[in-house]
Amino acid sequence: MKVLYIGNYNDGTGWGNAAKANILSLSMIDGVKVYPKSITFNGSYETKNEAMLLLEAKNGKLNGTPDVCIQHTLPNLYSYDSRYKNIGVFYFEANSVPIEWIAQLNMMDELWVATEKNKKDAFSSGVTTPIKVVPIPLDADKILYLSEMGGKIDRMVDRFNFGFVGEFVERKNLKALLMAFHAEFDPSEPVNLFVKTSGVDMDTLKQYANQIKAGLKIRNRYIEEIFVSGMMEEKDYYSVLSQCSCLVVPSRAEGWCIPAWEAMALNIPVISAEGTELMPHENELMKFVPSRVEPCFGALDTMSFLQTAHQTWNEIDVTELRKAMRERYETPIEKVDSSWHELLSFKSVGNAMKKNMQNLLKEKNV
User: What is the value of pTM for the model shown?
Assistant: First the structure.
């Protein structure tokens, strides 16, 4: 089976990393030859990931027609070719699909999303194309290995460390976490807040945090945050992530939230808002905080034709978040069952994708 896989796997974003993981998963499966085709949304034209470089060199460019074309890109960029099966991979970070995407989604042969909630919300939004749930694969063994290889942050040694990993955008709702942390914890307590973000310079980030502390009127009695902005070497990222005692995901919406699953691979508990994409995957490491449904206000404005006024997402309750963080601080979680690692392994997800495509190829074109 020849598979052309189009995705922004060099961009270093959540969407791009998901494309990279899916491509590498398929490359491990017997009977599937995957041809990656790179596109970019942020100017990252050069392939730097070693595994992807090897795959590009090994398979080269596709000659002729594929059996399946997987388009892991924005639905408004989808195209359809009746010579092969067309699969669209997409995620959306709200409680419904943008209405501007519906027509393109409905012209595909099949769609893949990462969660049951995305599937349910897509159908409720008017999508009629068959949808399969394909989780984003996770290499838990690699994460555990790299977490022992990288550098550490001295301030995080022998402390309880809350962590946050996400872009500096409204959807990620860093404001709620900063408010909860500084309102709940006193400098006399051995606790830190580690923030790994991107899309903002350090001066702006510190100014943002200072404005929140000023608004809380905590004066000069507070715990200084630990900020990292920009890319980290993979081994250093996982090493520092392993220093976190609890990852907080205050996001208003998520398509999957790769950092949450990376944290749980390291046995780190996660706090998230009710109603997010993490909700259907509840396990011992997850704790959900009440939230309320609100209009999507301040969504990232990357596409001028998209209107989000009709969409909603979930605003976490900061008071309840404070309680949840206090509970995790006072009652740490011991090691829990890790059998779910296998369900998200590269081979498991790769085989699921292969099965989906085999079934699709059996269907006759209409």
Answer: 0.89
